Amino acid sequence: MSSLTQFVAFGGVVMLGAMSPGPDFAVVVRRSAVSGRSHGMAAAAGISVGVFVWVAAAATGVAALLAASALAFTVVKVVGAAYLLFLGVKAFRAALRKGGGLDLDVPDPGRRSRRAAFAEGLLTNVLNPKAALFFVALVPQFLTAQAPVGEALLLSLVALAGTVAWFLTVAGIVGTLRRVFARPAVRRAVDGLTGTALVALGVNLAASTRP
């Protein structure tokens, strides 16, 4: 397999993984629907950086150590599950909060809120040990143990680009429909559904075991 074909194939597999329903998708959809396109894109960027970190960790063997260590896996699993439950409960509280729809003419709250969205996306991905297992299994199929550092870096950048492309598309679509999501009933439904999804994913992660 040529290097170009290898990178294209790897990017395709990573993008398919990103498209599967999970906490990353739920976070981007909720951020885009409730806070707007730019915040959804900030969350998407955070998730993509998390993917970059996991691919780099898998290429250098760090992720394999996590997958092999019961203690390390459990610590990351518990922290990740707690974080997903925290996000889910926060979404539930927003769904139960009384009030009108969003005022779309209010000025953007600024960089701090987008930084929070970025951090939310980053932590959601980095604190998911299943991501480590996914890339530990995937990366060796495209990268040999003797591969140069530059090749590992390129593979990480390909993963970042594929993930960015998908989640920016999701953020853009949901953000475009924000006037629909601004309606009180629709917004509460989005908060309730994403809260349910995040809590369920958190419970599933907490109950999971190493393969």
Quickly list its features.
211 residues; mainly alpha; 10 helices
Structure description:
The chain is mainly alpha-helical and 211 residues long. 81% of the residues lie in helices and 0% in strands. It contains 10 helices and no strands. The longest helix is centred in the C-terminal third of the chain and has 28 residues. The two termini are 29 Å apart.
Structure, briefly:
With 211 residues, this protein is mainly α. The chain contains 10 helices and no strands. Helix 2 (23-35) runs antiparallel to helix 6 (111-126), helix 3 (37-60) packs antiparallel against helix 8 and helix 4 packs across helix 5.
Order of helices and strands: HHHHHHHHHH
Strand content: under 5%
Shape: globular
Unreliable stretches (pLDDT < 50, length at least 5) are 99-110
Helix content: over 70%
Could you give the distance between the termini? 29 Å
Largest sheet descriptor? none
Overall SS class = mainly alpha
Name the average pLDDT: 79
Task: Provide the gyration radius in Å.
Answer: 18 Å
Give the helix tally. Answer: 10
| Number of DSSP E strands | 0
List the helices and strands and how they pair.
Blueprint lengths: L2 H17 L3 H13 L1 H24 L1 H7 L1 H27 L14 H16 L2 H10 L10 H28 L1 H4 L2 H24 L4
Helix pairs in contact: 1-8, 2-3, 2-6, 2-8, 2-10, 3-6, 3-7, 3-8, 4-5, 4-7, 5-10
